Amino acid sequence: xxxxxxxxxxxxxxxxxxxxxxxxxxxxxxxxxxxxxxxxxxxxxxxxxxxxxxxxxxxxxxxxxxxxxxxxxxxxxxxxxxxxxxxxxxxxxxxxxxxxxxxxxxxxxxxxxxxxxxxxxxxxxxxxxxxxxxxxxxxxxxxxxxxxxxxxxxxxxxxxxxxxxxxxxxxxxxxxxxxxxxxxxxxxxxxxxxxxxxxxxxxxxxxxxxxxxxxxxxxxxxxxxxxxxxxxxxxxxxxxxxxxxxxxxxxxxxxxxxxxxxxxxxxxxxxxxxxxxxxxxxxxxxxxxxxxxxxxxxxxxxxxxxxxxxxxxxxxxxxxxxxxxxxxxxxxxxxxxxxxxxxxxxxxxxxxxxxxxxxxxxxxxxxxxxxxxxxxxxxxxxxxxxxxxxxxxxxxxxxxxxxxxxxxxxxxxxxxxxxxxxxxxxxxxxxxxxxxxxxxxxxxxxxx
Length: 448
Description:
Layout lengths: L7 H10 L23 E3 L10 E4 L9 H11 L4 E2 L13 H6 L4 E10 L2 E10 L4 E10 L7 H17 L8 E7 L5 E7 L6 E6 L2 E7 L5 E7 L4 E7 L5 E7 L3 E6 L5 E7 L4 E7 L4 E5 L7 E6 L5 E6 L6 E6 L6 E2 L9 E6 L5 E8 L2 E8 L7 E3 L5 E7 L5 E8 L2 E8 L5 E6 L2 E6 L12
Parallel strand pairs: 1-25, 2-3, 2-4
Antiparallel strand pairs: 4-5, 5-6, 7-8, 7-30, 8-9, 10-11, 11-12, 12-13, 14-15, 15-16, 16-17, 18-19, 19-20, 20-21, 22-23, 23-24, 24-25, 26-27, 27-28, 28-29
Helix pairs in contact: 2-4
């Protein structure tokens, strides 16, 4: 499952404030050779958009508002199709396959909205233009337009189109949690839809609040709040908005994450001589178990999809590197390549495979890196090459990644398609520590 990263500057301020560990003290960027990539790193190969099927979306019959526009944009952001304009002459009436075929359209999406209860019903049809037949037909119950989940329900319909045509999961019906500074010392917790809409503040603190992490079912959110006296690990019920303290510590606690079963969680605790990875049983609210035993700083745990392994960050060699160990602890192996003045941090394990993304210093700035969780110290790929990019988190489709990117114009959240390298802005502001939710299609109440 996905895990939150921790921003180095924020973490440093936490540790200094608590007179605790100097987590992952990184060598200065100036010490690294800024003319070439670090050892064991290569720039990722980029693929063109050529060969993507051309798809068109007609205006939906009976639609109030641009529901078809939401679906069209979702399909565009999926990065699996080329989007074609719809000629006015073909935007209504019976589907003329010959006319659409003459425009080289491969797939056509048509739809109809009808009132149903307090909401509406969306009947979606996907046509294979080349073969002149319907290949997908689904009905979706949408909540009232005033519901915060109205657009989410439309996104869920878009994901089913993606799944039906590609046999791969979509990522439109998701949200991204992140932290935003609210003043000189305080932080707020926000969520935003995958398309950048519906930004909502969930919580705030005059002090430190950080490291949000979604549960595997998308119904809960972990995050940490630190005061002068204590550090509390909170779990928020996303439906009710209620929070509960699942762990209270007099020492620093950071980078919590859920295991795939939603009961086991992992986080780092300051043990005085360093930060150590622990697990905890949420279902029984007990059974704290220590997994690492070093005099170094170990943090940012992230579970493999099957829950059998954990990747994490540690500076036990003197510089921060990415390691992988069994979920029960013991025998960690280094995943990131060794080299002079290298540093790697904030790993996140792909929810659909063996890829682990993290950020690392390259040519004097942080860039996103990609490694295989089963190939320790092997060649890794660098996904970005400009600006300052950090704290990546996977989308549930195992293809897209959200991260914090900083340029001369400031910081913002961005999304990168790992297959093409295409990047789009998601939210503008001093936004950090983003964590991408799983699909939220299962939590939508059409009567909400």
